[in-house]
């Protein structure tokens, strides 16, 4: 509405009405609230409003006021007049200034202030408004436009307060000597010089959003600070104001509070010190284990590497889950979507992948978006239990956090990952989940009064996730050879993969693993749907051994599914069909895997090798997994050279296949 008022204010000035008529008309409306209510009321006919305007207002103002009545703008008459006054002063070279003081300045001091403003802004006339504020203790604050000239004792005391606040953040317990040391340092650095800052006035604050009038030079993504020390990030740039998303509490803030530019973009701490820690979306520790000693910071939003800097995805990022590594392999630098309904094992699949990276020199980052705090605590507990926290970072923006922190969390996690990638390391990032991320962004966008589109999401919701996931890649050797592999998670409703957000993310990623509710509840876990899951990298991200061992697995399963549906009502089956069904059920049973027990490459190869050669079909289905487990233990104990050859050479020769089959026959005979 302020932008519309600014247009009418400019229009009023351009009509060249006498200033006395404009001021007189505005004063009449200010002094007579009944008149203003009448002209603002939708219940009063337009013709009646026109009659009132013709009787009470000067001729030069009538046409303009009738236009305001027609457009229902009288309720915003104060904003219209402010816009007119600003335009009038700008065109007549009049500087508008406000001096806030603790002790009333003398006439000589006021004259010097006016001379300073006139010289600084090349003004012919200076209108100076005086305001008293005893809290300043001493000195004063001069506001001209969106610039603030500060020279007072209060600002130095505020620095002392902030210094003590930072010291308390760093140490769990602070002694009296340390307090004295901080205060002594602040006194030594007591600033008596005038500080110049760009500031704006808060016109609205609430629901995690602040609208600030002014800050004309603020940048998108810039951090602004408020009087109470809290921070916000600029998210919306308008003609005369900016929309900010709060990064902290709005306590002690309200209309009229000041916001100051920092000229810095939002950033998070990065580095090895972050490993093993649980942090919030701003990189601050929330695990109660003390401060994080990190000297390096990285901006939250960064440009994705270009095509020239990337190389082909052809190195496996093994998940340890047989059904995925065999049929839908993930490569380092790939973006593989995990999609499915609520409570189908999406998070468990991602955690298994993290656990499987132990000893592989891969840094793992788990980003929890909109999850319950208890869920995040449970995930952290599992990672600690299996020794995975030492190479992991948990970034948590829980359901009780501000929508702004839920929005920033995945970008913060990716910035932490980029630090390691540029050092030449491989990183795995899990975003759990991007559905809640989109909902948080939708809430912010609606509060910032952006136009809603499909399902009330803003028009740039596709860009929201594309600019995030495009940062995942594998760099070429010239740029360090590091990689970021991302596993975004999307929650569907009743298996609807054709909904807005799921289709968006499917089109951005390099494949998806679809977890089906029916499979999950029938006991087949992980509940991977072979028909709807796909990896667009495919065999390029598999070792030669896995490619050979998994050869016809997907086709065999597809044939089994069709045969099972076709024969479910038949009782008289030939032996060939019975054998095919038995073989299919055997494969399905082997693909079941318990939670938090990822399989090594050698375990997967041996399992697939004996299964594809139909060495298990003569066993009962419920005995097969135990047989395979015992067989692998036997090979480890008696024929460890087989394990060593698979793990080191990663090739499955015909001789090795025959050796594995021979050992299996030997074990069976026992």
Automatic annotation (TrEMBL):
ATP binds at residues 340-347. Keywords: ATP synthesis, ATP-binding, Cell membrane, CF(1), Hydrogen ion transport, Ion transport, Membrane, Nucleotide-binding, Translocase, Transport. SUPFAM superfamilies: C-terminal domain of alpha and beta subunits of F1 ATP synthase (SSF47917), N-terminal domain of alpha and beta subunits of F1 ATP synthase (SSF50615), N-terminal domain of the delta subunit of the F1F0-ATP synthase (SSF47928), P-loop containing nucleoside triphosphate hydrolases (SSF52540). It is an enzyme of class 7 (translocase). Residues 542-663 form the ATP synthase alpha subunit C-terminal domain. Its EC number is 7.1.2.2. It is a peripheral membrane protein. InterPro entries: ATP_synth_asu-like_sf, ATP_synth_asu_C, ATP_synth_asu_C_sf, ATP_synth_F1_a_nt-bd_dom, ATP_synth_F1_asu, ATP_synth_OSCP/delta_N_sf, ATPase_a/bsu_AS, ATPase_F1/V1/A1_a/bsu_N. It catalyses: ATP + H2O + 4 H(+)(in) = ADP + phosphate + 5 H(+)(out). Belongs to the ATPase alpha/beta chains family. Belongs to the ATPase delta chain family. HAMAP family: ATP_synth_alpha_bact, ATP_synth_delta_bact. Residues 196-262 form the ATPase F1/V1/A1 complex alpha/beta subunit N-terminal domain. The record marks 533 as: Required for activity. GO terms for molecular function: ADP binding; ATP binding; proton-transporting ATP synthase activity, rotational mechanism. Residues 320-535 form the ATPase F1/V1/A1 complex alpha/beta subunit nucleotide-binding domain. GO terms for cellular component: plasma membrane; proton-transporting ATP synthase complex. It comes from Parasporobacterium paucivorans DSM 15970. It is found in: Cell membrane; Membrane. PANTHER family: ATP SYNTHASE SUBUNIT ALPHA, MITOCHONDRIAL. It comes from the Bacteria. This is Multifunctional fusion protein. Pfam families: ATP-synt_ab (PF00006), ATP-synt_ab_C (PF00306), ATP-synt_ab_N (PF02874), OSCP (PF00213).
């Amino acid at each position: 509405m302020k932008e519309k008022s600014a247009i009418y204010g400019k229009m009023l000035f351009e009509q060249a009405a006498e200033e006395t008529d404009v001021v007189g008309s505005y004063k009449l409306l200010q002094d007579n609230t009944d008149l203003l209510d009448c002209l603002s009321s939708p219940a009063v006919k337009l013709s009646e409003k026109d009659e009132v305007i013709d009787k009470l207002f000067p001729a030069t103002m009538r046409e303009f006021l009738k236009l305001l009545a027609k457009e229902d703008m009288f309720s915003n008459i104060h904003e219209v007049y402010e816009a007119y006054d600003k335009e009038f002063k700008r065109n007549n070279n009049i500087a508008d200034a406000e001096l806030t003081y603790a002790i009333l300045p003398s006439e000589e001091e006021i004259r010097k202030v006016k001379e300073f403003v006139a010289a600084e802004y090349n003004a012919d006339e200076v209108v100076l408004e005086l305001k008293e504020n005893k809290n300043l203790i001493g000195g004063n604050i001069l506001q001209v436009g969106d610039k603030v000239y500060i020279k007072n004792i209060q600002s130095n005391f505020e620095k002392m307060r902030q210094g003590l606040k930072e010291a308390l953040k760093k140490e769990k317990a602070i002694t009296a000597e340390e307090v004295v040391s901080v205060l002594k340092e602040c006194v030594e650095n007591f600033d008596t010089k005038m500080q110049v800052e760009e500031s704006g006035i808060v016109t609205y604050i609430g629901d995690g959003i602040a609208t600030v009038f002014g800050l004309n030079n603020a940048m998108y993504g810039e951090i602004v600070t408020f009087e109470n020390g809290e921070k916000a990030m600029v998210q919306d740039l308008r003609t005369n104001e900016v929309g900010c998303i709060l990064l902290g509490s709005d306590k002690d803030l309200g209309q009229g509070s000041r916001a100051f530019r920092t000229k810095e973009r939002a950033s998070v701490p990065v580095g090895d010190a972050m490993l093993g820690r649980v942090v919030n979306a701003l990189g601050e520790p929330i695990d109660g284990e003390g401060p994080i000693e990190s000297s390096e910071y990285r901006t939250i939003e960064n440009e994705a590497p270009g095509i020239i800097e990337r190389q082909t995805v052809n190195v496996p990022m093994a998940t340890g889950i047989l059904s995925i590594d065999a049929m839908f392999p993930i490569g380092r630098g790939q973006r593989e979507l995990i999609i499915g309904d609520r409570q189908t094992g999406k998070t468990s699949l991602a955690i298994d992948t993290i656990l499987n990276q132990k000893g592989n020199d891969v840094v793992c980052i788990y980003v929890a978006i909109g999850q319950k705090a208890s869920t995040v605590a449970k995930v952290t507990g599992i990672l600690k239990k299996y020794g995975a926290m030492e190479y992991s970072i948990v970034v948590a923006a829980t359901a009780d956090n501000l929508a702004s922190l839920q929005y920033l969390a995945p970008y913060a996690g990716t910035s932490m990952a980029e630090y390691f990638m540029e050092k030449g390391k491989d990183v795995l990032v899990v975003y759990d989940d991007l559905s809640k991320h989109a909902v948080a962004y939708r809430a912010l966008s609606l509060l910032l009064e952006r136009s809603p589109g499909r399902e009330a999401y803003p028009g740039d919701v596709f860009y929201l996730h594309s600019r995030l996931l495009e940062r995942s890649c594998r760099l070429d050797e010239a740029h360090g050879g590091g990689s970021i592999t991302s596993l975004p998670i999307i929650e569907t409703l009743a298996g609807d993969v054709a909904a807005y957000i799921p289709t968006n993310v499917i089109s951005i990623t390099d494949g998806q693993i679809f977890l089906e509710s029916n499979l999950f509840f029938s006991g087949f876990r992980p509940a991977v749907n072979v028909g709807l899951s796909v990896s667009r990298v495919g065999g390029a991200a598999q070792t030669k051994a896995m490619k050979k061992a998994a050869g016809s697995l997907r086709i065999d399963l597809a044939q089994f599914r069709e045969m099972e549906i076709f024969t479910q009502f038949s009782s008289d089956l030939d032996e060939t069909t019975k054998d095919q069904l038995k073989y299919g059920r055997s494969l399905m049973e082997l693909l079941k895997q318990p939670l938090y027990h990822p399989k090594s490459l050698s375990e997967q190869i041996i399992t697939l090798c004996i299964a594809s050669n139909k060495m298990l079909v003569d066993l009962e289905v419920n005995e097969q997994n135990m047989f395979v487990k015992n067989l692998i233990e036997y090979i480890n104990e008696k024929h460890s050279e087989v394990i060593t050859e698979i793990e080191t050479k990663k090739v499955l020769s015909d001789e090795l296949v025959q050796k594995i089959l021979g050992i299996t026959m030997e074990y069976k005979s026992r």
